[in-house]
Known about the structure:
Blueprint: H1 2-20, H2 23-31, E1 33-42, E2 45-46, E3 50-57, E4 61-63, H3 69-77, E5 87-94, E6 100-106, E7 114-124, E8 128-132, E9 139-141, H4 147-155, E10 159-166, E11 169-177
Antiparallel strand pairs: 1-3, 1-10, 2-3, 3-9, 4-8, 5-6, 5-7, 7-8, 10-11
Amino acid sequence: MKNLIKYILVMAIPLAVLLSSPVIPLVALSFGQEVKLSTMPFDPRDFFRGDYVELSFAIEEVDFDTFSKSLLSKLEQKDKYDSLEIQVYVSLEPDDEGIYNVALVSDTPPAEGVYVRGKIEERFRRGGLMIDYGNSLSRFYVKENTGRELEDAARKGQILAIARVWKGFIVLDTIEIKPK
Length: 180
């Protein structure tokens, strides 16, 4: 009987770990707040999965003037050869059109409002940093032969990404083309 319990535990633990990985994205999609983000796409094709749109977001390029004082002092203390692996919390606020933009980048989570957890990725030339929000925003799979249409619309500035944010975790939900 003891051996049977050991075998069940040995099989149950890896299964539980495997099944728990999609829980946070599902919770974010179910209970997260909807945010609209402006995008800058790239449209490749995956041989096995079909068309997808690989997106870059305006909230990934963050200027230093949106950084909190404590985060700026932390960055100043870094040696230029140190890795910039710093977790940050990016507060988002909607503009007049309902598109969410960066309001504040901090090293502590805000007490209220919509925020996304990310990591500072690398320096860029325009006086700011790139922030990586993880794989949940990198690709969006679309119906066959519709990727080119989305790419053309994005070049004209007519595409928005609808994402869901829950406790700092962001998941890409849908993509929509703005009405003209």
